[in-house]
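User: My collaborator sent over this chain with a note saying "see what the structure looks like." That's all I know about it. Can you take a look?
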Amino acid sequence: MVLSEEEQDTLAATPAHRGGLYALYGSYLAGNLVERVWNFAWPAAVAMLHPSLLPVAVVGFFTKLAMFIGGPLLGEFMDHFPRIRAYYGLNLVQISSQLVSAAMIIYALTNGTAQYTTATSVLVQPWFMVLVVAGDMERLSGVALGVTMERDWVVRLAGANRPVALAKANAMLNRIDQFSEIAGATIFGILLSKYDTATCLKFASGLMMCTLPVVAILGQLVNRLSSGVLDDINKPAPSVSEKLVAGTQPGRRVINPGNIVKKGFKTIKHGWMEYKEQPVLPASVASVFLYFNIALAPGSIMTAFLMHHGISPSIVGGFSGLCAFMGVAATFISATLVKKLGILKAGAAGLVFQASVLTMALGVLCCTRTAQQAPLYLFLSLIVLSRLGHMSYDLVGTQILQTGIPLSKANLIGTTEISIASLAEFIMLGVAIIANDVAHFGFLAMLSTSCVVGAAWMFCHWLSNPTDQQKKLFSFDGSSHHSTQ
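Assistant: Without extra context I'll predict from the sequence alone. Here is the result:
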């Protein structure tokens, strides 16, 4: 049966499983809200222990190391577990890790911070070591959940052959993510300005425990409202099992660690090779370069820096919320830029804008004395403004990668990019560990700005010297041709 053009448009805009999609939004909101609260809470709390960037930098350092090593393996092993069971397990691991981390920080705060005379005295504490391990588990499970819901579930529920419905679903997930960041940082920042840190962490822990049954129920609801469409996803394939299992008996599977390690290294090598050969490599590398910016962006290092400078926690939370609000604004601005300039020039505009504003922010920071707070607020305002360019490129860059990367390799290359981005943050956090004094923040800011400027230069150079393959993928009159590979 041939559908009319109007019927085809209607079908393209109608989700395959509308009810399941709404349940997914609810689950995504609940999980993301807790995750954003925790991402703001832990660096603010750890910063209270000692006037140094070192403890916060060390936790982030090992988290990024875990992501760099586990990133390429994450998607590979997730493909061999039933999705619903994996969803339950990952939520349990993530929230349990958050609760353990909160307990460790509360223990440190209630036992007095006077004993931590030096930053290194914090690092050798048993509770801090547990905090590092729990932080690694929390991030790995959080990233796995994000990949599952944003790249797999939403496609099944909206419909891979219904582009308008899928685009709307992706936009909704993006808005939920930004809203969660605004709400999480603002709520915890206000609480932190009114109550002591340990009390605020107890509130966050209560929120985590209440969220676990909610996301479990919503996950089951997603599957039921979608007629069990997720049940048949990612059941273990026999060929994969044979690689992971050495000698099986009826009813028993014996796992060979040696085979798992070999397969792991093979997966990592394959991911890096595919990443290197992608036709839009400069655009992806520019995105990775932006991850070197750990100082002039909302995050653990910036939060610790502001707390040490006596900025009110409510203002710090408001700063993070405004940065997230710029992400929402970018969803509208980037669409206009693509329409007027074309996808590649729109990406260049976002990068150049971010690099220019961060250069001004660096100038303000270098001219600001420690006791002055008014210039510091100008500095923060410029950081907020720079997020407009950052998020614009983030959205446009995603479309560039979707256009230039074959669908058969999208997940592998995307996961490998996450791993390389974690390596970038890992390197910068290593530098932060060495230059851990708050007085050295200006040096970290200079490195961050240089990397953003480098990303802008790299992308503009690629744009001004197009290859034959680039010309096939993108036209220079403002429109793009979608890859059919």
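A starting point for your reply to your collaborator: The radius of gyration is 23 Å.
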